[in-house]
């Protein structure tokens, strides 16, 4: 959406909402192109992609991202004019083992990994998570003795 400088009116759509139904970030190239990152919204609508627009507002059909693991959070234009995308990757892990011969009888963790959280470090991954583990009853009993 675009707003007046004074914020005196309701915003107007620059592009039809159907082009990027769940926008997540944008950047302008030095050549005037606009790049919009789109994700999948809470209602399941949208597409994990990046759409490029020419300076006249036309969608550039020749510019496309084909990455099945892309889930863009934000994007930026690097000094070499590459489009750098921060992307999210949620994860969940669980495990279990017989409690009569293992210290940990079960374990679970989950979180989210964010690829390229900083535009000047495209190979970095920032991961935030939480974990829980259960000490087996036999190990806890042995510790008390």
Summarize the structure.
This protein has 145 residues and is mainly beta.
| C-alpha geometry | elongated
Helix content: under 10%
Number of helices: 1
The tally of structural domains comes to 1
Number of strands: 7
Order of helices and strands: EEEEEEEH
Largest sheet: 4 strands, antiparallel
Mean pLDDT: 82
How would you describe the overall organization of this protein?
By secondary structure, this protein is mainly β. The chain has one domain (23-144). The chain has one helix and seven strands, in the order E-E-E-E-E-E-E-H. A four-stranded antiparallel beta sheet has the order 4-5-6-7. The protein has a three-stranded antiparallel beta sheet with strand order 1-2-3, with no helix packed on it. The longest helix is centred in the C-terminal third of the chain and has 8 residues, at 137-144.
Q: Secondary-structure blueprint of this entry?
A:
Layout: E1 23-28, E2 34-40, E3 46-53, E4 72-77, E5 83-96, E6 104-115, E7 125-135, H1 137-144
Which terms would index this structure?
145 residues, mainly beta, 4-stranded antiparallel β-sheet, 3-stranded antiparallel β-sheet, 1 helix
């Amino acid at each position: 959406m675009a707003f007046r400088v004074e914020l005196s009116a309701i915003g107007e759509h620059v592009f039809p909402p159907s082009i990027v139904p769940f926008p997540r970030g944008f950047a302008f190239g030095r050549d005037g192109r606009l790049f919009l990152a789109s994700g999948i919204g809470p209602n399941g609508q949208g597409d994990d992609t990046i759409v490029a627009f020419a300076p006249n507002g036309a969608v550039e059909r020749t510019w496309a991202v084909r990455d099945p693991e892309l889930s863009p959070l934000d994007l930026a234009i690097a000094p070499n004019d590459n489009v750098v995308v921060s992307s999210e990757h949620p994860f969940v892990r669980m495990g279990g083992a017989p409690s009569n011969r293992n210290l940990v009888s079960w374990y679970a963790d989950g979180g989210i990994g964010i690829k390229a959280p900083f535009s000047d470090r495209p190979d970095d991954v920032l991961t935030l998570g939480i974990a829980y583990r259960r000490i087996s009853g036999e190990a806890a009993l042995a510790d008390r003795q």
